[in-house]
Design a protein that fits this description.
globular, Ribonuclease iii, N-terminal Endonuclease Domain, Chain A, Double Stranded RNA Binding Domain, mainly alpha, 2 domains
């Protein structure tokens, strides 16, 4: 599928199209194409994740000048999370533009597709700077019509507030296991809170597994 069509979908014309090529290349493509010198998306994803966090943090900080840190963090988690990025990836049919090993179908792979969205953000940052990243993120990643003045708290934030208030300490998360294939890894994480038994849960990445463990814990606490 032409990478130029993807440029049109994300509404950004790259000065260096190789950056977008890199952002949409999976490591499995390199392993099975010894003649290619293409880098994969992982380094750009690392950068894009940080740029996304910065842009969203600034946006919510300025949009809600009276909001406390916890409320701002809830907004950030709501829009920088895997599900939100995956929804955007599905909207632009991103999976058809990815370079992977032959036979892979990543159409519903939340982990990889959300990472590639972050890689695209990193590519735009390198290609054209922070201002163009802001425009891309605020026009594509945020749905301003869905932003409420009082966002729903995420399980990790709720559990953190509970532990600080009751025990004056934070919950502790630990990785118990990682299994599954390279494209769809599953993480098992446990959370420990003072005077309570460990609670574990799984997720497609560490963040999701921790959120699931926190939600399970809150359910036990009936909070």
């Amino acid at each position: 599928m032409s990478i130029n069509k993807l440029q049109k979908k994300i509404n950004h014309n790259f000065k260096n199209i190789e950056l977008l090529e890199e952002a949409t290349t999976h490591s499995s493509y390199q392993k099975n194409n010894s003649k290619t010198n293409d880098n994969n998306y992982e380094r750009l994803e690392f950068l894009g994740d940080r740029v996304l966090g910065l842009v969203l943090s600034e946006y919510f900080y300025k949009t809600f000048p009276q909001a406390k840190e916890g409320v701002l963090d809830n907004y950030l988690q709501g829009y920088a999370n895997q599900d939100n990025l995956f929804n955007y990836a599905k909207k632009i049919n991103l999976s058809i533009y990815l370079k992977t090993q032959k036979g892979d179908n990543l159409e519903n792979n939340k982990s990889i597709l959300s990472d590639v969205v972050e890689a695209i953000i990193g590519a735009i940052f390198i290609d054209s700077g922070l201002q163009n990243c802001k425009e891309f993120i605020l026009n594509n990643i945020i749905d301003k019509t869905l932003i409420n003045t009082v966002p729903v708290k995420h399980p990790k934030s709720t559990l953190q507030e509970y532990c600080l208030e009751k025990y004056k300490t934070l919950p502790k998360y630990s990785i118990l296991n990682k299994f599954g294939n390279e494209h769809s890894p599953i993480y098992e994480v446990c959370v420990s809170v003072q005077n309570h038994d460990l609670v574990s849960a799984t997720g497609s990445n560490l963040k999701n597994a921790e959120e699931a463990a926190a939600a399970k814990f809150l359910n036990i606490l009936k909070i």
